[in-house]
Specification:
Blueprint lengths: L1 H13 L11 H10 L2 H5 L3 H9 L2 E5 L13 H22 L2 E5 L6 H7 L3 H12 L3 H15 L5 E5 L3 E5 L7 E3 L5 H6 L3 E4 L3 E4 L7 E6 L3 E3 L2 E3 L2 E6 L2 E7 L4 H9 L7 E7 L18 E6 L13 E6 L3 E4 L2 E5 L2 E2 L2
Parallel strand pairs: 1-2, 2-6
Antiparallel strand pairs: 3-4, 3-16, 4-8, 5-7, 7-13, 8-11, 9-10, 11-12, 13-14, 14-15, 16-17, 17-18
Helix pairs in contact: 4-5, 5-10
């Protein structure tokens, strides 16, 4: 992703921006997690904090090129680094409305594809095509869905393998991620996007989730592919956190995290017609429904946590106040 990072920096220079290009290699990341203690990782980096307190825009390109080393990192350290990153970045980001974009093309690498059992060529082609969808198309679809979700008294989510979850969206407002952060978004306090984009997300009332969700689509986590994950909710809290053998590290990381880690955080409907299920962008695929737990203040929610995890359900149906929005994985217009 170095070439793309250089091209992005050049375009920023053309706009008169003061740009810092920061290289974050696999060896750097592995050394950081291996040699620093848990207590050290929990503390915010002075460099990260200074950058966040100075920047107006952050563009994140890339991920671990070969994440296999992460399998050997203790879950407690992964939880600790999340805590430190939260302290360094999120408070000033929210306070100063720093615009942030995550470029997912950087997550598509041959070692990742091999490790996850994915077709590299198809994966890359899908991400490229999904990135080119016109933001105006996403915005139109997103606004219609957001209008139907806003303030919904009763939401019922059902899906294959026994998923049935009920919650309330009363007094909550949905966010449309169409890949563009405009002045309207900033006035509402929403300053995050991704490329490719295409989703509508809302923070349910945190104490209202009842039922269970069974994620039937893979979750790529720290060099591992979780193929099955199940949460059971009662009074908005996760009462059981189960999954396949690959979910073990995630569950241990969840146990060691701080804050409202067990509270429902968000409900998301994907709207990108070019994103395909089964790769790394399940949540933006048109008609896919996702549920997250943990941190949700970026959505004007009440959860404060060092943990956030999201899973996606394919072929799900979503009803809001007796109106069907998604039926068997298809958006109902």
């Amino acid at each position: 992703m170095l070439k793309l990072a250089e091209e992005t920096a050049e375009e920023c220079f053309k706009k008169g921006a003061d740009v810092l290009l920061n290289l974050y290699t696999d060896r750097f990341y592995e050394a950081y997690l291996t040699h620093l203690s848990e207590e050290s990782l929990k503390q915010p980096s002075d460099f990260c904090r200074a950058l966040t307190e100075t920047s107006t825009v952050e563009i994140l390109i890339g991920a671990a090129y070969d994440p296999s080393f992460l399998k050997d990192i203790q879950p407690a350290k992964l939880a600790a680094t999340n805590e430190g990153e939260n302290k360094a970045h999120y408070p000033p980001q929210r306070k100063r409305s720093i615009r942030s974009a995550v470029v997912h093309m950087g997550s598509v690498t041959k070692p990742r594809a091999e490790g996850f059992g994915l077709d590299y060529v198809k994966w890359r082609r899908m991400v490229e095509q999904a990135s080119l969808v016109d933001a105006k198309i996403l915005s139109r679809t997103g606004r219609r869905l957001a209008s139907a979700l806003n303030g919904g008294e009763k939401v019922v989510l059902t899906g294959p393998e026994g998923t049935r979850l009920e919650c309330s969206l009363k007094n909550r407002v949905a966010v449309v991620d169409d890949g563009v952060i405009d002045q309207r978004d900033l006035r509402k306090g929403f300053a995050d996007t991704e490329v490719p984009s295409g989703k509508v997300t809302i923070a349910p009332n945190e104490t209202t989730a009842e039922g269970k969700v069974i994620f039937n689509l893979p979750i790529l986590f720290r060099g591992q592919m979780i193929r099955r994950l199940e949460w059971k909710f009662r009074h908005g809290r996760v009462m059981s956190f189960d999954g396949d053998s690959s979910a073990t590290a995630l569950r241990e990381m969840w146990k060691k995290a701080a804050g409202d880690k067990e509270r429902i955080a968000s409900l998301t409907v994907g709207i990108n017609p070019k994103a395909e299920l089964g790769f790394s962008l399940n949540s933006i695929a048109a008609g896919a429904v996702s549920v997250a737990i943990g941190e949700n203040q970026h959505l004007k929610g009440k959860n404060r946590s060092t943990f956030r995890c999201q899973g996606t359900i394919g072929n799900a149906s979503l009803m809001v106040d007796d109106r069907i929005l998604v039926e068997a994985g298809k958006i109902v217009q």
